Amino acid sequence: MTSSNFEPHQATGRWDTRGVSASGSAGYCSFTKAIEHLGDRWSLLVVRQLGTLGPQGFNDLATGLPGRISRSVLADRLRRLEMLGVVSRCEGPHPAYRLTDVGLGLMTPLGALRTWAETWLPDDPAMVERDPDVMLGWLAQRVDRAHCPVRPVVLEFRLHQTCDRRYWLVVQRGAQPYGCLTDPLLDPARYVYLESSIPALLALAHGRCDWSCALRDGSVTAAGDPALMSRVGEWFRPVPEGGRTRGDRMRFRWSRRRSARSGTPKSRTATHQ
């Protein structure tokens, strides 16, 4: 049997790289450099945040990035991005970080990466437990503020897999919705208690499933004031007709199978004190 060009020669212990062209090697090296400098969890999130929202102060970045980044890690990533020429620091009464022209050049590839991920990558249920504020942020983006109640309403989410943990989303007409990891302690009469599986909630957060459908088929169960419960679906933007990609349909079927395997009956009634 003849050996591959990429198998090491036993006599020398070296790799035969004759099968790699100069142009291919150069492209691979460039890709490796990009991963080495930007492939950690936070660097591209910082770039996206600055490219989407414009110049941001350190505290704004620390609180606005999805997930939980420590201040020391954020400072390290900003120093690295400055060294690469991706980010610059604006001095003045209110110092802020902004993207340079080099950094702005990353926005198009990041947009393509996001489109690919939304189309082909399945949801990660463990992410909800690890970074629940990310899921709350997705839900907040789907709120239709023009159709929310005039007085604040608190949506309390309880997940089948983690019944001891709850998350809250506050909605109000014309106001920016916001998520809470602790009870906001607003008027108890203005709470709607929602219970679902993690995959079902992620499908709602990504706009792959309509709230009225989820409530009707039992994917989500609700308790609270009947007048508020009946209007929950109106507070979120509807799923566009024909707006699901092939990847959306695949992920939704995958989510529903995960829900079925969890063993939670669809007719389960949410009960809360």
Automatic annotation (TrEMBL):
Biased composition (Polar residues): 264-273
Signal peptide (UniProt feature, chain positions): none
Listed InterPro entries: HTH_HxlR (IPR002577), WH-like_DNA-bd_sf (IPR036388), WH_DNA-bd_sf (IPR036390)
UniProt KW keywords: DNA-binding, Transcription, Transcription regulation
Keyword Transcription regulation: yes
Region Disordered, annotated ranges: 1-21, 240-273
Organismal lineage: Bacteria, Bacillati, Actinomycetota, Actinomycetes, Mycobacteriales
Name of the protein described by the UniProt record: Transcriptional regulator, HxlR family
Domain of life, source organism: Bacteria
Keyword Transcription listed: yes
Domain HTH hxlR-type: 29-125
